[in-house]
Amino acid sequence: MPVPVNRVPMTEAELRAVTIGELTSHSGPIEIVDYDPEWPRLFEREAAAIRAALAGRVLLIEHVGSTSVPGLAAKPKIDILLVVPDSGDEPAYVPLLEAAAYVLRIREPDWYEHRMFKGPNVDINLHVFSPGCPEIERMLLFRDWLRRNEADRQRYERTKRDLARQDWTHTQNYADAKTIMVEEIIARAREGDGSDTTVDGSPNVREPAGA
């Protein structure tokens, strides 16, 4: 069945507009490695540090992305979903994370007030959203479906490995290239869970900047 997706890949100008600091080029293939059972432990260590830094302001923190799916090959980068009361209220949490040496790299006020940080010790993408953001449900649904659906897990890994062999100017370009496959899997996950098959109806369905 057709998947109701409005794919919106980011242009270089858009990437520069949301990036804090210098936008670095990748210029080459993407490194994909076999699943590492150390990844969940690295997430737990980072989650504990983030909870300590934010002192009760964490509403939800989850390991997401490919490194959160046992058996799935991935870029060796830990994706973390963090929900705070208001991701657009930077004074409430950004200084606390910066004091713990996390670095704000992405600010997207027009896309669910998404913020993305890099970590001091582990290669991470820390994605910050507010409660009720559709991206939260999307990330968790995708992760949970891949954890239990071997066929889609294998299909997604093949797609990632094929795309990763190409030369990419920015890692975000690679992430955006996976969007159609990601949304196809999310549509099947919604059907499998008995929920509405319509993916978020906004025109902003895409991978977060920094993905």
Provide structural commentary.
The chain is an alpha+beta fold and 211 residues long. It has a single domain (21-192), classed as 2-Layer Sandwich (Beta Polymerase, domain 2). It has seven helices and five strands. The chain has helices at 12-18, 39-54, 94-99, 134-148, 150-164, 171-177, 179-192; strands at 60-64, 78-83, 103-108, 114-118, 124-129. The chain has a five-stranded mixed β-sheet, with helices on both faces. Helix 4 crosses helix 7 (179-192). The two termini are 27 Å apart. Mean pLDDT is 87; it is low at 1-7 and 194-204.
Quick structural summary:
With 211 residues, this protein is an alpha+beta fold. Helix content is 38%, strand content 13%. The protein has one domain (21-192): Beta Polymerase, domain 2.
Secondary structure layout:
Blueprint (H helix, E strand, L loop, with lengths): L11 H7 L20 H16 L5 E5 L13 E6 L10 H6 L3 E6 L5 E5 L5 E6 L4 H15 L1 H15 L6 H7 L1 H14 L19
Parallel strand pairs: 2-5
Antiparallel strand pairs: 1-2, 3-4, 4-5
Helix pairs in contact: 4-7
Number of strands: 5
Separate helix tally:
7
CATH fold-level label? Beta Polymerase, domain 2
Number of domains: 1
Give the structural class.
alpha+beta
Q: For the record, what is the CATH homologous superfamily label? A: Beta Polymerase, domain 2
Instruction: Indicate the mean pLDDT.
Output: 87
Distance between the termini: 27 Å
Order of helices and strands: HHEEHEEEHHHH
Shape: globular
Hey, roughly how much beta strand do the residues contain? 5-15%
Q: Could you give the order of strands across the largest sheet? A: 1-2-5-4-3
Radius of gyration: 16 Å
Largest sheet, strands/sense/barrel: 5 strands, mixed
Output the CATH class name. Answer: Alpha Beta
pLDDT < 50 stretches: 1-7, 194-204
Helix coverage percent: 25-40%
